[in-house]
Sequence to fold (131 residues):
Amino acid sequence: MVILRRRIPQKGKCRDMNTAKTFLLMAVLTVLLILRGEPDRGAGGMMIAFLFAIVMNFGSYWFSDKIVLKMYHGREIAQGDNPSLFQMVQELAGRAGLPMPRLYLIEGSSRMRSRQAGTRNMRRSPLLRES
Fold:
């Protein structure tokens, strides 16, 4: 059984709050990384840590969905592979007023779950299904 849950934003309130939380988390992690660079090499270490944090934050924000798919060897499934799953997701996306996500299958898991990877853009966000 596949269960999909997503809070439907009301006039952008949920989306704005999620963006603020993401920004806050990235800022806190950047500050921690910079403070960690100071004892090693002083001001130069802080600058290197800051540049490293920028690269990490950029990569994790823009490529998080691709990273998860590579980690778990997810493969995109076509409508012909599992028509009932596609129909269910289309129905749920239609009810929520969201675009149809790309569907990926992760093989080898003992539990069956579904989750969404990457949330920066609803049109590009894949839905993962473990089997």
